[in-house]
Design goal:
This protein is an alpha+beta fold. Helices cover about 15% and strands about 25% of the residues. Strands 1-2-3-17-9-19-4-7 form an eight-stranded mixed beta sheet, covered by helices on one side. Strands 8-18-10-16 form a four-stranded antiparallel beta sheet. Bound molecules: succinic acid (SIN). Succinic acid binds next to β18. This is TauD/TfdA family dioxygenase.
C-alpha cells in the first residue's frame, strides 16, 4: 500500500480549465485557509484570471472575509448604503425584488467601467441555481491583446475609450475614459480593456472610425477560443480579475429562481498603460492560442 507522509499531501490543488482561462481550486473550506494557502490562491488567480471553488457553504460574513483577503471591498453605489454585499437575483418576495439583474441576458462587459477606478476583482457565491440557463462565460483579454497584429498594437497604445457616451455626442458622456490597452499592475502584461460594448467611443478618433475599430475588437475579443463557460452549481464560489477579462451571463426562465451573493474588491489604482507597453511579455495563460 502506498504510504503518504503529511508533507506529501498538498492542501491545495489548482486544476486549469481546458480553455484560454479559468481554473478550479480544491483547498477545502475557504473559511479555514491560512495565509500560505491564500498566497497560492492569489497567484493562481493572477495566472488563470478566474477561479472556481466548489461546494462552499459560507455565511455572508465569511464570504466578505474571503473577499477582503484580495483587498478592501467596494461599498454599494447607493449613497444611503455602505453595504459590501449585493444580491444578484431575479427573485421577488412580497412583490419586491430581493436583488439586482433579473433573469435576462447580461451582455459581455467588465464591471463598473464608467467609474475612474473599476473594481479589481468580483466574487460570486451561488445559493440557488436554476435547472438550466444562467451560465456565466469569461473571455481572456490578455490573449485578445496578444493575438493582435503588431501594427494594430502600436495604434491601440495611443488610444483611450470613453464610457457612457450617448449614441451621437461623445461630449455628453458622463463616464470615465480609460486606456484601450491596460498594463496589469500585478502581472505586468497588457490586456485589451473594452469594458462595455455600448455607449463607448474612442476619444482620439472620429466617431465612424471609432465604431468600426470597436466592432472589430469586440468580435475578436469574444471569439469562442478565448472563452471559458461556467455552468453553476449550488455552493460554487467564483472570483475573477476584472482588469483582464470580459464576462457575460446567459438568460434563464423568468419563473426559475437564481440567487447569488456578490462582492467586489477595490482596485489600488485606475487602469493605466505602461510607457514601455509594447515591450511587455505576453501573459502565459492561453499561450497556445498566440501565433496561430
Ligand atoms: C454580472 O454580470 O456581474 C452577473 C453575472 C452572473 O449573474 O452570473
Amino acid at each position: 500500500m502506498t504510504q503518504f507522509s503529511r508533507e506529501s499531501i498538498r492542501p491545495i490543488a489548482i486544476i486549469p480549465a481546458e480553455a484560454a482561462l479559468g481554473a478550479e481550486v480544491r483547498c477545502g473550506r475557504l473559511q479555514s485557509i491560512d495565509d500560505t494557502i491564500f498566497g497560492e490562491i492569489r497567484q493562481a488567480w493572477l495566472d488563470n484570471l478566474v477561479l472556481l471553488f466548489r461546494d462552499q457553504t459560507l455565511s455572508d460574513a465569511q464570504f466578505l472575509e474571503f473577499g477582503r483577503r484580495f483587498g478592501p471591498l467596494k461599498s454599494a453605489a447607493a449613497a444611503d448604503s455602505h453595504n459590501e454585499l449585493h444580491v444578484v437575483s431575479n427573485v421577488h418576495v412580497d412583490g419586491l425584488p430581493i436583488g439586482i439583474q433579473g433573469h435576462g441576458e447580461i451582455v459581455w462587459h467588465s464591471d463598473m467601467v464608467s467609474f475612474s477606478k473599476p473594481p479589481a476583482a468580483s466574487l460570486l457565491h451561488a445559493i440557488v441555481i436554476p435547472p438550466s440557463g444562467g451560465d456565466t462565460s469569461f473571455s481572456n483579454m490578455y490573449v485578445a491583446y496578444d493575438t493582435l497584429p503588431k501594427a494594430l498594437k502600436r495604434k491601440l497604445a495611443g488610444l483611450t475609450l470613453k464610457h457612457e457616451v450617448s449614441p451621437d455626442s461623445a461630449e455628453s458622456g458622463t463616464g470615465a475614459s480609460h486606456p484601450l490597452v491596460c498594463t496589469h499592475p500585478d502581472t505586468g502584461c497588457n490586456a485589451l480593456f473594452l469594458g462595455s460594448r455600448f455607449n463607448t467611443c474612442i476619444n482620439e478618433l472620429p466617431r465612424h472610425e471609432s465604431d468600426i475599430l470597436l466592432e472589430f475588437l469586440w468580435l475578436h475579443a469574444t471569439q469562442p477560443e478565448f472563452v471559458w463557460r461556467h455552468r453553476w452549481r449550488v455552493g460554487d464560489l467564483v472570483v475573477w480579475d476584472n482588469r483582464c477579462l470580459l464576462h457575460r451571463r446567459e438568460a434563464f426562465a423568468s419563473n426559475a429562481r437564481r440567487i447569488l451573493l456578490r462582492t467586489q474588491v477595490e482596485a489600488g489604482e485606475p487602469p493605466r498603460i505602461a510607457a514601455d507597453a509594447l515591450e511587455r511579455p505576453v501573459h502565459r495563460r492561453g499561450l497556445a492560442l498566440i501565433g496561430r
